[in-house]
Amino acid sequence: RPGPRLFVSSRAWSRLVAPGRAWSRLVASMSVPLSPERRQSWLHCGVRIRLLVLLSLLASCSRPIAVARMSKVEPASASETDSRERIANRRCSGSWAYLPVLMGLGQLCHNKDGEGGTLAVLGASELASAVLVARHSADGANNPAVGLPLVAYQDLWVLGISDMLIDRDRSKSLLYAPTDSMVDLVAAPFNLQVMKDPKVWGGLFGALALGVGVSLALEGGVPDAQRDRVNLFGKDVAPAIGYPVGLGTFAGLFSHVAPAEEMLFRGVVQSELARSYGEGLGWLGGSLLFGAAHAPNALALEDAQEQREYLMYGLPVITLLGSYLGYLYKDSGYSLARPAALHFWYDFLLSATFFAIDPQNSPISANVDIRF
After folding, report:
1. What does residue 129 show for φ and ψ, rounded to 5 degrees?
2. Each residue of 277-334: pLDDT tens digit?
3. Which residues of 287-298 are buried (b: 16+ CB within 10 A; e: fewer)?
4. Residue 365 in contact with residue 233, Cβ under 8 Å?
5. Of the candidates 89, 350, 305, which has an alpha carbon nearest to the alpha carbon of residue 210?
């Protein structure tokens, strides 16, 4: 299906629409029985993916970077006033955000209709995707395409809770409460105001070098893997389809992961510790808790040796990355945009690198292998 006519070169446009075309080819080759109307609806997703990619890039290229309150004598900011007024006129308690089955309800209670509606729609979509695949796949709930949307759903839940806690802190004009919106964090990886900072792209290159280097060292170099076929959710597909769809899947997943984890570990944990014990101990405590929270990832590895290596080498790398994200957060005036951008690109590029090296073993294949 041809893309809309835009004033860009054919080569640039082909790169832009590649995920949408790959999606269309994948749907056309699906073994799940679909009605002609449903198949056509799914094929239209390819067009929407192309438009969403373009619109997200255009909309996020120059968003301003918000900073937190750094002194008690500062006048109330617009975001603090907005949070205070919304919470004062709330429809119900924001504590509803703690219930994972009512995604977005906490935001709706606090009169954040746009965020609440978005979380509700995304949450329903993630659950519906998992149920649909589980019902129609021969592997049932064991198919990797079931677990992935559930992980995304979990991140949406964490994001919703963290957003409510930060909103409460802003309404009280507490120190170090970030003023970034959810849209700011999702757009941050494509925001030129964020990505032009040497501490962001320089830190990204350094983190990638460390993560890739440690992973390859433990594996004894680049593995001799089969690269003429791509394992996509347990099904071997051609690289022309598998790689674009795989990269699109990673981008969708980490657009959930990065904002959620940064809101929680930096926006909630580090800021609260900084208010209670000082900025230095807040940074240290948030970094250590970030690393400790990733320890359960070892359970996804079946081999005991791989579990030990992950805990001995991978966890320190992740903790070190968390400490840099915490430093970037503090150095940015407690803005979440820079750490969220670095977090997204680190996860995406690290996964993309090893997906290209070994497309048969990844979080979206039948065999899971966790890199650092």
Report:
1. -65, -45
2. 999 999 999 999 999 999 998 887 878 888 899 999 999 999 999 999 999 999 999 9
3. bebbbeebeebb
4. yes
5. 350
